Fold each of these.
Amino acid sequence: MVSFEGPSHPEGGRGPGPRVRWRARGAVAAVASVVLLAPVTAIAGHMGGWTHDHSSAGVPYRPHGYNDIVRVFGQPCGPNMQGAHVWWPHINAPWDGGYQGHHPYIVRNIVHNIRSHISAAHNEGAWYYGQYGGVCKQRTGGSGYSLHAFGAAVDTNTARNPYGQCSWNGVGVNGVAYGTYLPNVWRESEAGHNFRWGRDWCDPHHFQYATGW
């Protein structure tokens, strides 16, 4: 059993209760939990030994509309909202790393296709602080539950890209301007990892694995 205590989100909300626990079922699930909990490390050589996983396991079906989101992810603020854990290097401040909870449905895509992609390219400096996952909260500027409440959204580089800003500030933790490198790894139209970018509605730090909500 893996336990995780989620930090508060800058737009409000916390996980359901002080701790959320994920119970791995069987030997395969237990091994998977160990893999997901390991921090991503640099791979020797530029992109050496690493390839995308664009199979249905690596980039699964992306739901559209509220009913389809509930069918895939379950009810908002449910037990899978923070059901699997990913190490992030800059949560509440530069180099203040820790684990964030996400729905297991999208974790292979996050860990293998996005985190490992950036690490293999030696571009870890592109990250900046304000990195959040599953949080039981309402939608900012709207009604109903946020996709964070399903564990289906990730925020990153929030300190440089606050809600209401309609552009992306790509300056990373190392002070280098990376342009839209990070969003291009996340979003559907570039690397094909199928996350929808919130810049389209002036929420540039937000990447969600669903549409129509």
Amino acid sequence: MIDTNPASERHERPVPRWRASLLGRIGIVTLVGAALALTLFPFDWLANVWPAYGAVFDRVFNSAASHHIGHTVLFGIVGLAILFIVPALARHPWRYAALVVAGALAQEAIQALAKRDWPNSGDARDIGFDLLGLALAFALVWALQRAVYWKQGAATRSLSAERDEEGSDDAEGSHADPGAAAKHQVIRDQ
């Protein structure tokens, strides 16, 4: 059977069928757009123009700690989405870092524009929590990939160990065909 997958020619892992069929090109664009909208949307502005949302927003983010946790969780979710949509970024941490730093800076710039204010030290602190969430997402994906590869490697090692044991048994003649055993006996007798 001839492998027509172009990914195998470039020595890359092929895209799983479920991901290719589930997402497709339009699905990927939609997911990237949703992640960007979630990241870049000025939620402070929405809280000011929609009083019902503002009441919920103020209740959920009533302290500085909850605000920082919110930034970390939001950007952690966005980081996981980015790494799910574009899994190659997990193998290129510097590209991922450049992308997420640009996203965090853009988000804070849009927030400052929505408030009609200049960025300040609070925005720098928020960027730090944004990057923390994105770094935690990368670390989680990296750890999960290593666990899967380790598990696959352990299974491969156990299979090769079983083959080695079978090979040593064959050398002793326990699994060899009778004709081969007879040839070894003739050689020993001479």
Amino acid sequence: MSTINLQRTAIRFLILAFMLVGMHNANAQWKQSNCSISGLTIKSLALNGSIIFAGTSTNGVFVSKDNGLSLNESNNGLQNLRAFAVAGNGSSMYAGTFGGGVFVTNNDGSTWTAINNGLTETRVTSLASNNSLLVAGTATGVYVSKDNGTSWLVAGSSLPSVLVNAVAAMNGNILAATQSGVFVSTDQGVDWLPVATDIGPAATSISCFGLNGTVIVAGSTEGAFVSTDGGLTWHAKNTGLANRTINAMTVSNDIVFVGTDGGGVYKTYDNGENWYDANQGLVFTDVRAFASTNTTLFVGTAGGGMFYRDLQQIIADAPTEPVATSGIPSLAFPNPFDTYTQIQLPNDMSSPEVVIYSVQGIPIRHLVAQPKSLSTVEVTWDGRSDAGDICTSGVYIARSESPRGGHSVRLVRVSH
């Protein structure tokens, strides 16, 4: 091939590469939902099947039936438009309003009906549901309904009658974050015990909870706190979290996402040990709410309405892979991957074994590498554990040991 042809081929390749990068970046950015009302502040988000419900600060409830492309008002029967909280349970969706109590819809938001029997405090700040249990945080404490909102009971007297920032129903327990600290009930709201006393004044500013397996993550004005013993003890986990005022939280694919006050969205693959921002295209960075499907992450913002982004793109947008100390790069292709990835490591290993770890440091799979050249070895991972189970989407680490200190590759598995 002539020199001119080689140059033309190289130019075509570079143009194609730039086009592909541009397409990837476009798909990986946040996109804003269309809405007839500008400047919308969304306080909460919830899903009912494929329908997204958004509770707003002053404009009632909005609904999206097209995976976030558009938001439309859904306020027929909603007598108070300060819809601070929304929560779903089966075919029902509930809206907690500040001053009007709780409303329910059983027809995808076409009409709303008040359900306030026994709810003597109608300034609702937060909602949580679990099976037939419905929990409402209010301006003066917690109310519990054991019949999907038909009737309400005030929580036990051991819970202070103060403003409740957030409630969560987790593993049969109820967590309440109040201006007097965090409390837990193991008997559906009858008795309450103070927890998170070890984090000091930050406990009074907790605004949201997330559950990732047995790990509980709490967001506050002083960052993230993590508990691995059911909420008895907590530890600050804020490495990489540039903005520590957390307003909202969700967990998807074992990844914890937090929304911050002016800092946008952050994610952690390892329950708070390290945080990374995920804000490409997010022009409104005061994030107040989250919801997610298997394919899409949604955020509610202050003044910007709702944004959405492909969830697998966020997962795949992992931190930069490390380079081996030998000067030979540690690589994997394809990466992100679905069914398999080929891992290449420097050929100075003290053992041919390559171990795949979860981001929590748990060994998942043990593999044996084969020489590819004088300088590199290669091994293929099929995304399964040693027991043959298919691993969930998320981030994994392939690691080998060598006299130079070892080599590692960050892998991202995205199931389709």
Amino acid sequence: MRGSDTVSSQTPTTSSTPAKQRKQKATKKPSRSLTERSGPPRQRRPALAALAVILIVGGALLAGLLAVRLDSREPVLAAARPIEAGAVITEDDVKEVKVASEGLVLIPAEFADDILNGKTYAKFPIGPDTLLDENMLTTTNPVDGDRAVVSIPLSSKLTPAATLRSGDLIEIIRVGGSGSDAEPKVLSQGLVLSVDKGSSDDLGGSSEGTLQVLVPSEVAAQVIGAAGGDQAGVALLKHNQPFDIELEVPAQ
């Protein structure tokens, strides 16, 4: 019997195990687009942006406040030089400065003519650059019918020359003399208006200076007599007193 062999022409297939499939999936990397690789655009931080805005606005407000503050300064009057107690205020005594005068009783520069009328006086000594206020000045003449200005020579033996200054309240004492006048006697209280310390260039060369003193008119002659005889001693009572202070005269 003649038989024939039939040859199968099937194409061999490659078998794939589950382990191989997992290996292939692990090694195969999916391709990503350029957009995916670069990631989403970076987001700004809102807190920092808000802080920057606050700082800018705050700086502008501060600058504006300072500008308004400077503009709010007002021209007022100040002492251009030392002013003695009882002195009449003159144009050379004052100057104009700008300050924030809110809540103060300073004298505006626009009222300068009102105090430069020859009838305004310093109540007490005023230092240079002091801002003038209404309490420092008066229209009362320090030298009226009840008061007089006398001169008393300074003496290292009879007056505390080193400590005396304008505005001092003093006690004037007559010293020396003879008989019943030998005992020191208090003549009156007085207010120092000015102090002239003198110098070696003065005529005679021996003067230590003089005091200009406000005293009650009733004792002016006695004070002048004691001063002329180098018998006027001075005792310091208080500093920085107004010229209109009550000056006491002891009972005779």
